[in-house]
Amino acid sequence: MIKKRVSSSNSLQNQLWVLFRLVISLSVIACVLALLKIHSQTISPLPAAAVVRSEEEFVGNPKVAFLFLARAGLPLDFIWHALFQNAEEGSFSIYVHSSPGFVFDESTTRSPFFFGRQVENSIQVAWGEASMIEAERILLRKALEDPANQRFVLLSESCVPLYNFSYIYNYLMSSSKSFVDSFLDKKDDKKDGRYNPKMSPTIPKDKWRKGSQWITLVRKHAAVITADNIVFPIFRKHCKRRPDLDLEGKQNARKIVQKEHNCIPDEHYVQTLLSMSELEDELERRTLTYTSWNQSKNGKGKQNWHPTTFQYETASPEHIKQIKDIRNVYYETEFRTEWCQSNSTLVPCFLFARKFTRGAATRLLTEGVVGPFDASSLLLQSSTR
Hints:
It is a single chain. By secondary structure, the protein is an alpha/beta fold. The protein has one domain. About 35% of the residues lie in helices and about 15% in strands. It is built from twelve helices and 15 strands. The chain has helices at about 1-40, 50-55, 75-85, 130-145, 165-175, 220-225, 230-240, 250-260, 270-275, 315-325, 360-365, 375-385; strands at about 65-70, 90-95, 150-155, 160, 180, 215-220, 285, 290, 295, 305, 330, 335-340, 340, 345, 350-355. It has a four-stranded mixed β-sheet. Strands 4-15-8 form a three-stranded mixed β-sheet. It starts with a helix and ends with a helix.
């Protein structure tokens, strides 16, 4: 009788031990599957080998693709005409994202360089929304169709070149890196930070970056951005500008709005995607487009940063020279001084600048900033309207 009880007890212990091992094994498997899922969500959306291969297949004269984001027309088309007028044929291409249905022809631009250069599948763009980065992706996708395009420069309608075409072309082609302003945002350690925890785990907080929208890319990185179908949907869902509402007397509504993250997609998307793709070592972490920022206060005493608009008076040769003489950029959130380099050689930091009025751009033209200018083609174009 005693032997039977001992035998039953041992049998029960064995069964419990087997069950315990089964539970542990299933838990380990579940953890591994969860880690694999997280890993699959944070790896580069496009295999690097495939992108590199697409670069190596091209043989010929490489081109710089100039990608313009415009509301409608290009008010500074005349200064870009002067730049392209002095370029070697086959060394550049032009793409413009404008409002849907807008066509660049003799009635909408003074420069034949822009005729028919609008992308056909443009979308309506709103500042502070994901539509802005989708417009960038549309431009890059279209430009990638031409294998000769090896550098991709994103520009606004208020941008101007600071050098002649030859200088810009050689500067870009001499570097194997993309120029992407990218840094850690110290505000994201506070309540009013732009990072939304709902982005996790697809977008880890330690990969979150901030920077200027105005980027210059090598072909590999342009392809990574257009192939992304993981990070962009998260941005579209969780990175949104906080609504600017009149909430006077509406305490509950004010509390709801204050809880929302004031996230500007175009200042974070490319930087964060390339960080997640482990490509930061392939970047010069700075923009090539100069912007002068002024801090002002709105009616409620809140401080805001706004880009300065250059007028005719402020676009003097002395001021432009000061911009051209800049050789480094300091990032206070990282205690980092970025010395401006191209192919390990110290160079001026900026090739372009914004925001310029027509008067300011005209002054650059007359001062010969972009090189000799033949006005006859534009005058002839204007006379035929």
